[in-house]
Amino acid sequence: MSCGTITLLDKLSPEECPKLLHRVVDGVCGRRGPSRSDYRDRWSLTEWMDLLNSLSSFIRFAVGRGCSDQEVRDLLSDLDPARAEAVLQCVRSRLDEIRHALVDRTNAISSTQLQDFNWQIKLALSSDKLSALNTPLLNLSLDLKDNGIQRSTNIEMNKEELQTLISALEAANKVVLQLK
User: 117 with 100: CB under 8 angstroms?
Assistant: First the structure.
């Protein structure tokens, strides 16, 4: 990750850095970010946009990759040590909040999200076609949220269908674990 434009932070005194950094984190977390009017005498509009984009990207990268303190320092080696330490302290102090915002942002990629689920095992003793069936069935109830609208979906599966679902979920879990 290139951190070249983060060096624009050197135009701000080390004492003022934490305030700006925490406002940038606010922006990453979906709240109101820093205001250009507070810093217009320090950076041109282009520099301001480059700095905000670089800081936001860096914060998302460092938290998303789970960078250690030393990795963060190494990535910020071009930055003045006092300012690099301010970035590290800001990220460290708000790590859980940033991670939560990144998870929410990732979850928002899909319009449908699983909110809750419930399951029941039933034993079908007979049907209109067979007098003696004795087949176990799983009734899976999924509470979904699609574009802010709650809906419920019920699925009934026999043992083979359930095994296929479990295999698919295990395969998906392996892919997720490999991406970490």
Answer: no
